[in-house]
Amino acid sequence: MTDQSLQDQYAPATTCFGCGPANAKGLRIKSRVEGDEVVLDWTPEPHHEAFPGFVNGGIIGVLFDCHCNWAAAYHLMRRAGAGAPPFTVTADYAVRLRRPTPSGVPLRLRARVVESADDRAVVEATLDADGVERASCRGTFVAVRPGHPAYARWQGTDSGLGVRDSGLGSSTISGPPRAASGGGTKE
Fold first, then answer.
1. Can you tell me the distance from the alpha carbon of 30 to that of 140, in angstroms, rounded to the nearest whole number?
2. pTM of the model
């Protein structure tokens, strides 16, 4: 792995608001692999605030959504032995805002895959500021195939034409997530 972010390495032309290097008005997050985790260091600015000194919860949701999606895509790429990550989308995610998140200080997100299949991954993540956990997330991210509107989005196109093979072949799907094993609770 290089020091280059996953976004810069695999999707420099994407315009996603959260993770698109090509979106001048976006958050432009930079997810990097560190061991078994994907980490993100990002510092919010005053225009990311809900009220003076504290980050808007929607911005926190975007950070988790994009960062966890990249953790899933990277994991699925490695699992398949592919040279590039599959195009993945968010099937579901839940964010817990545990305490106010200050702005103007570096935030650190850590994401790790806790369950996976050939075409999907469940990711858990935390957000820390000043050494204190401020929020957490759990989500399911699914690889999509040609024909899905998000297919090829990381290349700055929505056509899906002339796109490299993700290495997942026909095992990728674009349907709803399957039930996770091990049970869970509904809130």
1. 20
2. 0.83
